[in-house]
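Weekly sync notes, structure subgroup
Attendees: PM, AL, DS (notes)

Item 1: joint prediction request from the bench team. They want all two components modeled as one assembly rather than separately. Inputs as received:
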Amino acid sequence: MMRSAQPPGPWREFLHGVRDQLPILMGVIPFGIIFGALARSAGIPVLESQAFSLLIFAGSSQFIAAGLVGEGVPALVVVFTILLVNIRHLLYSASLAPHLARLNLRWKIALSWLLTDEAFVVAAARYRRPDEGYPHWYFLGTGLTLWGSWQTSTFTGISLGSILPGTSLLDFALPLTFLALLIPTLADRTTLIVALSGGVLALLLASLPFKLGLLIAVLVSVGLGVWIESRQPDSSPGRGAT
Amino acid sequence: MSLMYLWAIILGGMIVTYLIRLTFIVLIPVDRFPQRFRRGLRFVPSAVLAALIAPELLRPGGVWDLSLGNERLLAGSLAMLIAWRTKNTWLTILVGMMALWLFA
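Output from the run, pasted for the record:
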């Protein structure tokens, strides 16, 4: 009964999720290795260095936290800093929530655990297609791939210590993958304006601490998109069609 | 540094990060929010992606560089063209990386 015209089953979707995360790993793995090495050089023991990746699983905040730990900043301040750096995940949570609404609690808990920048952008691309099929399996595949790579690359960095490979070119794979994901989202004029605004604002606000520039840039640009849409009454999906 | 101190940070960091991610998926159903809020959600991926890319190309290493000597900007522009024309992720990365390698 397996025909190519049939939508992919759960396992296929899972594998597609894995596949679509692979280009991003080129940027993530060097980042994880550097984190492992950095955590050790900040004086954090092996187990605890790994625990940062295992339990927090949020790259930028781990880097900043390891730096603060090295300076002996009080724990409460470090935790608050982690909160500030990761607050942008609220947007990802809100953006994917409508698509996950019908899943059971176990799925929601598992997928929330995997909700990083990289998993979000890949999963969001899947959710732009119809929700039928098994998009949550796709999300799981992409998220677990990222999680596994983050653990192994952290461990590699912990083991290698200060002997670091050159990463200056490889880290460019990350923005390139984001580019490939961005272009198909620019389906209409409003989205194009939203993206331009997001890019320009993020540039102007890049010096703000705690990655808050990203959060503000996205919030303002999304607001701009909603405002533009509200001025085109016919495009409002709430209005009944004749 | 004491282990107590480290574990306070690790567990505290885990709790705040996970609560943030759970917020709209589990804790506060998003359909409680006005239509306008939900309509905005479709713009989030485009805005996030553009906001992640732009500084990497125009402020590499945290420093503004709008010159033609900015190899990341040149390689990124070329990759953008490839992404737009082909919609192929791997080709976009390949061309972008090779361009960066050639220009650098």
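Discussion: Residues 238-242 of chain A have pLDDT under 50 and may be disordered.
Action: AL to compare against the crosslinking data before next sync.
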